[in-house]
Amino acid sequence: MKLLSRMTVAVFALSIGTSFAGDDGPPAAVRAELKLASEAANAKAWSQHPLWAFAGSQTARGLDGAWRIIVDSKTGRTHERAEFQLFKTEAVWDGQRYWRKGRSGGVHPIGSAFAQRTNITNAWLARRGYLRPDGAAWTDLGAKKVEGRSYLALSASPAGGEPVELWFDAGTHLLAQSIQRLSTTTKTTRYRDYRREHDAAIPFLTETEESGDTDSVRVTHVDALDSLADGEFARPSPPNDFTVAGGKTTVPMEFDGFVVVDAMLNGRGPFAFILDTGGRAVLSVETAKQLALPLAGGARAGGAGESTTSARFTKIDSIDIGGLHLHGLSFAVIPLQYDTVERGARPPFAGIMGIELFERLAMTLDYRNQKLTIEPLTSFIYSAHGTFVPISFTDDMPLIAGKIDGIGGDIALDTGSPEPLVIQGYWAGRHGLGQRLKQGFPLVAGGGMGGSILLWASRADLKLGGNTLPRVVSYYAEDEAGAFSSRSEAGLAGNDVFANFTPTFDYLRGGVWLEPTPGFAEKPFDRAGLTVAKPRRELFV
Q1: What is the largest CA-CA distance in the chain?
Q2: pTM of the predicted structure, to 2 decimals
Q3: CB 351 within 8 A of CB 369
């Protein structure tokens, strides 16, 4: 179950499409259009000022808030902030690294190989490199016509970056639209209401459509600057919104497919939560009603399948997990499917907790003894016998370099998955594995918030951090949307892989410690040929 959590929309964070490199510079038609676009936007006025500051308002996921962004016109460094009633967000590109501070309040870098190529392209776009086609490979995509308006579409691949598709208005030659193919989604950004500020043409309205949501930024003020305060492009400050009694706490951790921890919410409970490295704080609608929490906003949330569901937002004043106390944490409130959260005679799951814990705390998952040890990252010192394996991020899910049947790729580490290994169709197709994997046993599985998904079951050798796990049960996915449609990952490892280790997640140092723990026996592969689900509470009572 993966909640799409990116909340901010930058005026200059344009998008990515398909591009073809040229050997002899841009074609004549491309050069002609770029010259007209440069004149229309007045590229000279833009480059005369080293820094630009834009302020205004943002509507995102049904919430309204204040917004601002600082752009370095020479290097493409950016610092974007948004402040909503329930939470604040920040995003910084410092020229080398991209830092995200999401609605959870925590901070982590977005720097996987795929993400870094995207970062490079967005920095090129932020400094309006398309008005000075330096070092990019271009192609002419021809004339486009949508809803009676005509456009000239180009595609560019900045050096070291992902390709981006840009549509220029055929009449004004100002940038009107961009289309970005991200890891699992497509983002379309439209640029409206151009006005002259400091002689440069600036879009005062930007609308971004992704996964069924349309967010917007309205600019109200523009400043051209010569200097900034020190630290403007530094990593955002981490939150100071939690305490751990005694500096360290160990709490019970249930492991039966999912990893589950109990939490007290506003002094009530306990409530059972799935611990999910790839998720952000999610609360079921039923739990929000039980706690009489006010709701705000409205968005779409996605999961493992191709469907999306509605989401609103709230804030919980007090959360206690053993000796860990957090305050003022925002949650997305989602109508979770009953067959995902039901637990037989026990109360259903209350929701998900994920990155908001891992961004603040070193987390050791002891599957064998079913214990979770929690310690603040700032004071944590690893003292066990594991191997440190670097992690990276394309979004919220931690990734490590691994191998599936001897072929390398990024493996997502997903404690929110009860399965051993899911192999991504895009990666498998690139390496000629798709047809072989489809010879496995076909089955339809529940996809949580994303609906049902078709998988093919087989076995594969998995290598993580120098450890080889032979003949792991593997599920091959060919989804067109959702968590199993990634263009940037090879696969997703779940709890039946992690249970071979005692992993310690250490986001401050950018890695996970993997300590092999012998004795785990994976559950037998289910060959019954049927699935039993309980979609409503009143059934089978």
Answers
A1: 72
A2: 0.89
A3: no
DSSP 415: T
Residue 311 contacts residue 61 (beta carbons within 8 Å):
yes
How far lies 493's CA from each of 175, 410, 412, 423, 463, in Å?
41, 10, 6, 9, 11
Distance CA 378, CA 239 (A): 12
Rounded distance between C-alpha atoms, residue 169 and residue 176, angstroms: 6
Question: What would the pLDDT profile of 337-365 be if each residue is shown by its tens digit?
Answer: 877 888 888 999 999 999 999 999 999 99
Per-residue b/e over 147-177, b at no fewer than 16 CB within 10 Å? eeeebbbbbbbbeebbbbbbbbbbeebbbbb
Task: List pLDDT tens digits, range 240-287.
Answer: 999 999 999 999 999 988 999 999 999 999 999 999 998 999 999 999
> CA dist 476 to 306, 408, 446, Å?
15, 16, 14
Count other Cβ atoms within 10 Å, centred on residue 328. Answer: 15
For 198-350, strand residue ranges (E) read: 200-210, 213-225, 242-244, 249-252, 254-256, 258-265, 268-275, 282-284, 296-302, 308-321, 324-334
- Alpha carbon 261 to its chain's center: 23
Phi and psi, residue 521, nearest 5°:
-115, 115
At position 507, the amino acid (one-letter code) is Y
Q: What are phi and psi of 236, to 5 degrees?
A: -60, 150
CB of 329 closer than 8 Å to CB of 369: no
Q: What is the per-residue pLDDT for 26?
A: 75
Whose structure tokens read 């050096």?
159
For 3, 102, 505, 529, the CA distances from 280, given in Å and listed in that order, are 7, 9, 16, 33
Q: Which two tokens stand for residue 82?
A: 């948004």
**pLDDT (tens digit per residue) in 183-226:** 988 889 999 999 999 999 999 999 999 877 889 999 999 999 99
Bridge partner residues of 402 (DSSP) = 409, 464
Among residues 1, 101, 2, 3, the alpha carbon closest in space to that of 313 is found at 3
Six token digits for residue 458: 């087989």
Cβ-proximal residues to 211 (8 Å cutoff; 6+ apart), any chain: 4, 185, 300, 302, 308
Rounded Cα–Cα distance for residues 432 and 430 (Å): 6
Burial class (CB in 10 A: 0-12, 13-18, 19+), 535: exposed
3-state secondary structure of 438: coil
Dist CA 158 CA 163 (whole Å): 7
Distance CA 375, CA 243 (A): 10
Ranges of beta strands (E only) in 303-417 are: 308-321, 324-334, 351-353, 361-366, 371-376, 387-390, 392-393, 398-404, 407-413
To the nearest 10°, report the CA torsion of 123, 124, 127, 130: -150
Q: How does pLDDT run across 54-84, given as a tens digit for each residue? A: 999 999 988 999 999 999 999 999 999 999 9
Q: What is the per-residue pLDDT across 132-181, written as a single tens digit (0 to 9) for each?
A: 866 799 999 999 999 899 999 999 999 999 999 999 999 999 999 999 89
